[in-house]
């Protein structure tokens, strides 16, 4: 040792060069250490140490060379102590080389390599959904694209590729599907049964299947196709594929096709396809003809030869006899109306796009807002998941407010809990509240508990959205 | 049509909102979640266009298929002037094209050394004046079917490994490895360096050439496959592969040149990285077979000149896409430290381009301390590379991963989507010309090389 140099040769001690370089770095990083070199004493390393000014004694490649220079004796002592600790740690390093924890795949493509899937569910922000969905299609998987704000040319391309691969693209903007008993996206807990749905409308499908479920009739599959599938640009590609698939499915005895009226050329293509199927089809295109979603459910039951029940409602407690299930369609203009404190404007605050459209058509009037529309969901969760924006609108409302509350998987765990204070608040100001409650008894939120909570807060609650809309319209007097 | 989706138990891959994934978990539906994150900034539009390109899937299949099926064989050792299209007064260098003015210390050092070695200058100052005057033309090794480690300088008198791809017929070249420490490829140009180069040209090259003429071509594909199973990743560890090569060639070397056999074998045996250059030429032969497939987004070259890190992509011809070369995060020899390090340099990233090196880190537990310290880090490094590659190599396998093939064929679209940049193992050259090697470690390529290639693909 000369001054503040430590030079040491440990004969016969071996560590791999990388461990030693690492150790050298750890020493060199210490305050006060100018140079630290711990290495096997090869000719190269001994030369390097001598070049750095260390007085290296005779040593060979099977010896370990330590050469440390520090600015003070105490820094050097501490470095030497650290060296001993590091060597002890190296000796302990024979710890088991346990395999690294399984890493989650970073793309759908990578996931398809390690997991034998039947379907991909894509809900990344819309501008990024194409890549994930294309991964699935290229791997020969059907895909449900929950994401909205996906450019239509990407939708067309995905559906073209899916056609070539014999798989189905559900979406984009596909809110619900039920496949092989699994509820995907916003999905109600439905009993298994003979009805297969092809749905260009998520909440439309939820309304029909919840009514059917109440009537004791279950579903085989619910295949969403996305709200734009029946447009001229997309050409009904997924609708046609889904109709074919359900026609070939032995569990499906009746197909219900639900959506908005297609572009004329698409309508012709769909009509031709429907005519060619072996399975009977009930078509419910909202706005095309007088029917609504509830009558579509009724037609499906009739086609199966099953009875149509009374659709339940939970009337406003202020008027216990008012909303008898069978009374709702009867104009009753001379009733005492605590629901209707004089304000006449009807304001629809919807989370479900098709439910909103249906209510608008049924009520035939006034202001409706679809909080699930693309412009409200850019960078924000769907209102069925995040009710904040709609709740704020509800608190501002006056006159008659019509809302939908959609239950099922992925929807809020207790929507009534969030709504009740706002409903009570606006009721206190004289605003009437009517709720279309779409759900089943088996849904995790518990249909009956939700209905009771909303009714206790002063809302009138209906399982049928059309019935709710008619009731709300009646309260404004606009339909009388 | 019948849709397999409708039969049997649903099994779902989920990418996106966790609430939808949790809903499936509550229904006890078997599921694998994607750890999705947004792509590299500014790539959304280019990604959509590149992914939508109808040629892409098939083009990538062809490109990676060629890389995987290449059968590189070491068929000869010959002087550069005989085999390379190397006009007089031209030197090759590693990485994308660069001129003297922007060249880093180690590249300048190696060019100086080559000028002295070729007798173009009597000493270093004269060589430097000559090079600065532009009297020596510089070009990328990659433009001449060649790769060079570190500075990668090739001059006409140097002897080259010649590797022929028996599957596709291509040929690739790489210089002979000089050993470690003060060597030309790390920018050293002292008398000992020139002396060694002379010996390599007068003895090593001719002896190896004669030995190969006796032994016949050496199957590098099978040698690399064996070395991976013996703990090499073929970039920073070539100990097993070098041993295998010595074993294969030793009898022929003795037969071919009994007088020089001992010194030649001693030289090869004294350098654990002797195989690296043959392995690099093997990688180059396979990568070149994958070039020029229109629409392919697969990387066919990653290379650094000490200033820029550049890549080339199969569907984009000979264009380079570059960004600044990073300084490796590494471990240092002797008294050297990060301040002595030059930015990343060399064509040896052809190993990562072909699924070896950092991509095969899990095969080389002996050197895992380069990637953070333990075997789990090495497994994670290799694991993350499966995310950005198109295929798994059928012959190059990693025993510790259940003989899974190495991740091969980097896709610029997958790099942009995942933000995972290739893991590159590398040596570290001294910043100052003439220093030589100062360490070894890991380096991250610049993301812009990949995003600018993606943008160009979108316009192609």
TrEMBL record, chain A:
Segments of skewed composition (Pro residues): 309-318
Pfam family, one: Ligase_CoA
Domain ATP-citrate synthase/succinyl-CoA ligase C-terminal residues, every copy: 349-473
InterPro entries (UniProt xref): SUCC_ACL_C, Succinyl-CoA_synth-like
Molecular-function GO term, any one: succinate-CoA ligase (GDP-forming) activity
GO biological process terms on file: tricarboxylic acid cycle
Protein's name in the database: ATP-citrate synthase/succinyl-CoA ligase C-terminal domain-containing protein
Protein's organism: Sphaerisporangium rufum
From TrEMBL, chain B:
Top-level taxon of origin: Bacteria
Classification via Gene3D superfamilies: conserved protein of unknown function from Enterococcus faecalis V583, Enterococcus faecalis V583 domain, v583 domain like
InterPro entries: AllG-like, OXTCase_su_AllG_h-dom
Protein name (database record): DUF1116 domain-containing protein
Organism of origin: Sphaerisporangium rufum
């Amino acid at each position: 040792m000369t001054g503040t140099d430590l030079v040491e040769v440990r004969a016969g001690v071996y560590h791999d060069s990388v461990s030693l370089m690492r150790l050298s770095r750890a020493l060199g990083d210490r305050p006060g250490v100018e140079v630290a070199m711990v290495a096997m004493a090869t000719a190269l390393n001994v030369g390097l140490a001598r070049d750095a000014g260390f007085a290296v004694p005779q040593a060979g490649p099977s010896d370990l060379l330590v050469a440390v220079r520090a600015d003070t004796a105490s820094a050097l002592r501490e470095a030497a102590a650290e060296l001993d600790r590091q060597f002890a740690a190296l000796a302990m390093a024979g710890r088991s080389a346990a395999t690294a924890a399984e890493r989650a795949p970073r793309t759908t493509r990578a996931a398809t390599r390690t997991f034998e899937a039947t379907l991909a569910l894509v809900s990344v922000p819309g501008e990024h959904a194409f890549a994930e969905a294309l991964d699935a299609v290229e791997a020969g998987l059907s895909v449900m694209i929950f994401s909205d704000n996906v450019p239509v040319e990407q939708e067309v391309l995905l559906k073209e590729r899916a056609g070539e691969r014999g798989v189905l693209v559900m979406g984009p903007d596909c809110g619900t599907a039920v496949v092989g008993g699994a509820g995907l996206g916003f999905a109600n807990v439905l009993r298994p049964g003979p009805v297969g749905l092809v749905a260009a409308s998520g909440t439309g499908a939820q309304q029909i299947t919840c009514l059917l479920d109440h009537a004791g009739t279950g579903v085989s599959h619910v295949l969403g196709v996305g709200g734009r599938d029946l447009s001229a640009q997309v050409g009904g590609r997924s609708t046609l594929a889904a109709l074919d698939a359900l026609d070939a499915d032995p569990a499906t005895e009746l197909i219900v096709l639900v959506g908005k009226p297609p572009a004329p050329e698409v309508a012709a293509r769909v009509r031709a396809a429907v005519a060619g199927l072996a399975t009977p089809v009930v078509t419910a295109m909202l706005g095309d003809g007088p029917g609504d979603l509830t009558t579509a459910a009724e037609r499906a039951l009739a086609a199966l030869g099953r009875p149509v029940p009374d659709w339940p409602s939970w009337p406003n407690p202020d008027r216990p006899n008012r909303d008898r299930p069978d009374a709702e369609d009867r104009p009753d203009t001379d009733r005492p109306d605590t629901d209707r404190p004089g304000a006449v404007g009807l304001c629809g605050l919807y989370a479900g796009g098709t439910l909103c459209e249906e209510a608008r058509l049924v009520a035939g009037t006034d202001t409706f807002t679809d909080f699930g529309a693309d412009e409200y969901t850019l960078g924000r969760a769907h209102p069925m998941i995040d009710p904040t924006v709609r709740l704020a609108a509800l608190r501002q409302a006056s006159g008659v407010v019509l809302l939908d509350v959609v239950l099922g998987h992925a929807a809020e765990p207790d929507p009534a809990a969030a709504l009740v204070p706002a409903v009570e608040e606006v009721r206190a100001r004289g605003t009437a509240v009517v709720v279309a409650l779409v759900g089943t008894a088996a849904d995790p939120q518990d249909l009956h508990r939700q209905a009771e909570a909303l009714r206790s807060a002063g809302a009138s609650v209906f399982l049928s959205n059309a019935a709710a809309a008619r009731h709300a319209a009646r309260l404004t007097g606009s339909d009388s | 049509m019948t849709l397999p989706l409708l039969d049997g138990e649903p099994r779902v891959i989920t990418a996106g909102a966790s609430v939808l994934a949790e809903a499936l978990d509550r229904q006890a539906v078997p599921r694998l979640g994607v750890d999705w994150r947004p792509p590299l900034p500014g790539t959304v539009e280019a990604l959509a266009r590149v992914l939508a390109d109808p040629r892409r899937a098939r083009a990538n299949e062809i490109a990676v298929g060629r890389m995987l099926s290449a059968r590189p064989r070491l068929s000869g050792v010959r002087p550069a002037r005989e085999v390379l299209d190397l006009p007089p007064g031209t030197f090759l260098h590693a990485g994308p094209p660069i001129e003297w003015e922007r060249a880093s210390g180690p590249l300048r050092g190696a060019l100086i050394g080559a000028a002295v070695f070729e007798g173009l200058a009597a000493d270093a100052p004269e060589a430097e004046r000559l090079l600065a005057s532009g009297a020596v033309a510089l070009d990328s090794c990659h433009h001449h079917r060649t790769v060079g480690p570190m500075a990668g300088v090739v001059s006409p008198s140097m002897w080259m490994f010649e590797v022929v791809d028996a599957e596709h017929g291509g040929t690739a070249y790489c210089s002979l490895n000089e050993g470690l420490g003060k060597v030309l490829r790390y920018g050293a140009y002292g008398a000992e360096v020139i002396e060694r180069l002379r010996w390599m040209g007068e003895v090593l090259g001719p002896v190896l050439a004669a030995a190969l003429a006796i032994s016949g071509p050496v199957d590098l594909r099978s040698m690399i496959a064996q070395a991976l199973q013996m703990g090499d990743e073929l970039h920073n560890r070539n100990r097993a592969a070098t041993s295998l090569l010595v074993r294969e060639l030793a009898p022929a070397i003795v037969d071919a040149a009994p007088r020089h056999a001992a010194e030649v074998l001693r030289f090869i045996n004294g350098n654990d990285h002797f195989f690296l250059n043959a392995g690099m030429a093997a990688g180059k032969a396979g990568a070149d077979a994958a070039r020029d497939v229109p629409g392919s987004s697969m990387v066919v070259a990653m290379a650094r000149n000490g200033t820029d890190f550049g890549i080339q992509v199969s569907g984009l011809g000979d264009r380079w896409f570059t960004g600044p070369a990073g300084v490796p995060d590494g471990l240092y020899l002797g008294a050297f430290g990060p301040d002595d390090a030059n930015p990343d340099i060399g064509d040896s990233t052809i190993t990562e381009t072909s699924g070896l090196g950092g991509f095969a880190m899990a095969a080389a537990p002996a050197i895992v301390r380069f990637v953070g310290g333990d075997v789990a880090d090495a497994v994670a490094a290799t694991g993350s590379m499966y995310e950005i590659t198109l295929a798994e190599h059928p012959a190059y396998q990693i025993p510790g991963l259940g003989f899974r093939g190495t991740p091969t064929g980097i896709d610029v679209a997958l790099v942009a989507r995942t933000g995972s940049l290739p893991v590159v193992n590398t040596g570290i050259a001294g910043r100052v010309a003439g220093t030589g090697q100062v360490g070894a470690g890991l380096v991250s390529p610049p993301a812009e090389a990949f995003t600018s290639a993606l943008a160009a693909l979108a316009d192609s």
